[in-house]
TrEMBL record:
Domain Response regulatory: 3-119
Keywords from the named record: DNA-binding, Phosphoprotein, Transcription, Transcription regulation
InterPro entries: CheY-like_superfamily (IPR011006), NreC/VraR/RcsB-like_REC (IPR058245), Sig_transdc_resp-reg_C-effctor (IPR016032), Sig_transdc_resp-reg_receiver (IPR001789), Tscrpt_reg_LuxR_C (IPR000792), WalR-like (IPR039420)
Record-linked Pfam families: GerE, Response_reg
4-aspartylphosphate, modified sites: 54
Annotated protein name in UniProt: Response regulator transcription factor
Domain HTH luxR-type, chain residue ranges per copy: 148-213
Lineage, top ranks: Bacteria, Bacillati, Actinomycetota, Actinomycetes, Micrococcales
Record SUPFAM superfamilies: C-terminal effector domain of the bipartite response regulators, CheY-like
Amino acid sequence: MIRVLIADDEAMMRAGVRAILESDSEIEVVFEAANGREAIDGTQRHRPDVAVLDIRMPVLDGLSAAAEIAATVPGTRVVMLTTFGEDDYIERALGGGALGFLLKAADPRELIAGVRAVSEGGAYLSPDIARRVIAPYRAGDRTRTAEAREAIDGLTEREREVLALLGAGASNAEIGTQLHLVEGTVKGYVSAILVKLGVRNRVEAAVLAYRAGIVAAE
């Protein structure tokens, strides 16, 4: 069972997210919070597998809550909910410990897929968010794209294969299945990739993979 905490200042949104998640028999919502501070307290008390946080909330916003949760309850993985009007927040959130980014207006199946992916150790970027994150680099920032490709060139062939699957949102177990590796070996590859690329987490590695062009933003 995947235990989930939901944080959003709108009661109707919380009810909708709960209904979507609990339509999956393997997901249980264990706590609802109306702001970032309640989300932190609830996470510390209930220790959910995944915390789904709205970015904009009163008292304490989702970005601040995500950073504190990552620091104090590292076993809880964070998924951020965003809207089309919040592009400025995406880059900030990338370094805040979140492993998933979803649009509130997305297909409900994306929410379930994202929660499942991060609960299993993967990273998940909504396709629409992935396109927006890499759009500036396609549009003209050739230097940053070249830097991403140069960083990828420093990986071994196997590490590039792992990175491509990681960028597509696969968990360690799924990567192992596709590449015929045991999960412990995959973890070793992922750790080496993060060090070689100079990134802090799987999401930053996934974004770099998108920018380098080894994962398509569909």
